[in-house]
Design goal:
alpha+beta, 2 domains
Length: 100
């Protein structure tokens, strides 16, 4: 997911190089990563992905094992700040093998 000109898009990374990153947009247009912005992670995004909020514990959970508190991913004693949707998608996929 990425944002360009205020609109959200789903794109596929087609090519990665040190000096360039190109995305293949749904309609077949190529965009450089300089032309797109990451999408900020919000409560709304967590709900879209199926996270549930616990008022009592003040955390977001998914399948009882993924925990987010103040947009920090909690893994044991580690707390990793997550600012963008793609960061959550990446960490979730790395840990579960399932895409959000």
């Amino acid at each position: 997911m990425y944002e360009m000109q205020g609109e959200e898009h789903l794109g596929t990374i087609r090519q990665l190089r040190d000096e360039d990153c190109r995305l293949l947009e749904v309609h077949g247009y190529d965009y450089s990563y300089y032309e797109i912005d990451s999408i900020l992670l919000t409560d709304s995004w967590l709900e879209r992905f199926g996270f549930e909020y616990s008022e009592i514990l003040t955390v977001w959970t998914l399948s009882g094992s993924i925990i987010l508190s103040d947009f920090k991913f909690v893994l044991g004693l580690q707390h990793v700040q997550i600012e963008y949707v793609h960061q959550l998608q990446n960490i979730y996929f790395a840990l579960t093998g399932v895409e959000l």
